[in-house]
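User: Structure please.
Assistant: Input sequence and predicted structure:
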Amino acid sequence: MHFRLIACEVLTREICYIVSRAPHTVDLEFTPKAAHENSNYLRGVIQDKIKQADNERKYDAILLGYGLCGNATAGLEADRTKLVIPRAHDCCTLFLGSKERFKKHFSKNPSLAFSSTGYCERGDSFLREADNRRTLGLDKGYEEYVEKYGEENAKYLWETLNPPHLKDHDQVLFIDTPETSELGYGSKCRQKALAEGREYLELKGDISLLTRLIHGDWDHEGFLIVEPGEEIIGVYDWDEIIRAQSSSE
């Protein structure tokens, strides 16, 4: 099979590693890390690249190396070729290997800053100053929480998401992917974090989700397939995350 893969440049090393071992032909294209700063802009860039890919040749699928990414992928449409995208809130999920690991480490601290080899070596900042509240559906006002979850649950959610002192703003999580670990960016990230007075945390990365994307192993649990004439919409939960609907709806 012949795929087109459009992805954020922070995944360049991991993706190139996988593609070099993939059973399929994969044409690569990357978007700048800085494009994440404006969701509407990034959505437009990706949609343009999807249209360009459709005009260049007949691909078996266009693969998207993104998560919801601040709603940047919500609204993307498949034209002549199906799209395949991981069920992920953020690219952090792609570095961790699963939405379950993302939930484990980010459910209680959605604004925890994280980094990786790609984040360290590209752009001006070594961090992804994450705030996944929007893509987790947790960016509502207190009264909206009360209406949806009841007074007691709303109070718990509000206090969890808005503590007096946001400790996670003083922490940096580096995701150390074994395939790129020898480059030493974990140590560089640690030095920068400590120089800024932040606590340095580290997790072992896992490229299995990216590998399955590129190898064509698309189970419903891990991936959304968007057929021609459909678009991506956000669900904002922990399991489905995104779904497809007719772009005419």
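The longest helix spans residues 39-56.
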